[in-house]
Automatic annotation (TrEMBL):
Topology with respect to the bilayer: Multi-pass membrane protein
Transmembrane segments: 15-40, 60-81, 88-105, 139-159, 180-207, 227-252, 273-291
Pfam families named among the record's database cross-references: BPD_transp_2
Higher taxonomy: Bacteria, Pseudomonadati, Pseudomonadota, Betaproteobacteria, Burkholderiales
Keywords: Cell membrane, Membrane, Transmembrane, Transmembrane helix
Protein name in the entry: Branched-chain amino acid ABC transporter permease
Stretch forming the signal peptide: none
Location in the cell: Cell membrane
One MF annotation (Gene Ontology) recorded for this entry: branched-chain amino acid transmembrane transporter activity
GO cellular component term of the entry, any: plasma membrane
């Protein structure tokens, strides 16, 4: 039982790491802070669940592209409107569109209302009757999730090193100068927004396949805030910071909810969890990924100041 718990926890961390990586493309790569990223996560999760047959396992070769396509279509439609705004207005518009998607699933029979809907059989990778990978087995699903995380991380690493990634970096640094240089910044941002939606959709599919259950809370603003915290806590300036932030935040949640570690305080875990996040963000302005750089700067400052060195 303990091994199953740790395997499930590792899968959960990897899914959220993948989700955080998709938002990292917007926040760290393009300078677009979105508070509606959960919409893509939830839409793809609902899509794969709704399309899964009630008897027998669905086929990932069909379900995964459909779910990602739905998330990307929603990103394309909403992105055209969202990206015409900037700053806090962009944040609020993305939040508004995410809440709109939330209430579609929350208030209609499509998503089962507040009760959500169940996926009775996990999808399989199969060709005809030949099963290539059965993800109903915990270890197989763990390996499959790990492979998805590594592929997405590799894709984003190559993307940010390409000319397209360099253009996104330029837009983040100075969009007005990029426009003056002849770049269609709206087009670049829209493509990045759609790609981020699709990558967030992959995380949504994995989440639905992991739990076999989806509900409207997957699209709620709290979910968007959680993944944004992961990016900020990890360090938005580095791609791997999103993974570090997802690991740290998920483990913090597990620790503060643990009765063995927190005792009776575990029933009110949100308070110490929130205080811990505030402290970490305040003490680590560059995130956990920037911790080595912060330590080096502190050490150099102490070595340059004889009085500080004497006190230490």
């Amino acid at each position: 039982m303990a091994s199953d718990y740790y395997t499930g926890l590792a899968v959960k961390i990897m899914i959220y790491a993948l989700f955080a990586l998709s938002l990292q493309l917007l926040v760290g790569g393009t300078g677009l802070v979105s508070l509606g990223h959960a919409a893509f996560f939830g839409i793809s999760a609902y899509t794969v669940t709704l399309l899964s047959p009630e008897s027998g396992a669905g086929n990932f070769f069909v379900l995964l592209p459909c779910a990602i396509a739905c998330a990307m279509i929603y990103a394309a439609v909403t992105g055209i409107l969202c990206l015409r705004t900037k700053g806090v207005y962009f944040i609020m518009v993305t939040l508004a569109f995410a809440q709109m998607a939330y209430y579609i699933f929350h208030d209609t029979k499509l998503g089962g209302g507040t009760d959500g809907i169940y996926m009775y059989f996990r999808p399989e990778w199969r060709i005809g009757d030949t099963v290539l990978l059965d993800v109903s087995k915990p270890y197989a699903f763990y390996l499959f999730t790990l492979a998805c995380l590594l592929l997405v991380w590799g894709f984003l690493a190559m993307l940010m090193r390409s000319r397209f990634g360099a253009a996104l970096t330029g837009i983040r640094a100075n969009e007005q100068r990029m426009r003056a240089a002849g770049y269609s910044t709206l087009g670049y941002k829209l493509v990045a927004y759609i790609l981020a939606g699709g990558l967030g959709g992959i995380a949504g599919v994995l989440y639905a396949a992991k739990d076999g259950f989806v509900n409207p809370e997957l699209l709620a603003w709290e979910q968007s805030g959680l993944v944004l915290l992961m990016v900020i806590l990890g360090g938005s300036g580095r791609l791997w910071g999103a993974i570090v932030g997802a690991v740290a935040l998920t483990l913090l949640q597990e620790a503060f909810q643990s009765q063995a570690l927190m005792g009776d305080l575990a029933t009110h875990w949100h308070l110490p969890f929130g205080l811990a996040i505030i402290a970490l963000v305040a003490l680590l302005p560059k995130g956990l990924a920037g911790l080595p750089e912060t330590w080096r700067a502190l050490r150099n400052r102490r070595s340059a100041d004889p009085r500080a060195a004497a006190r230490s």
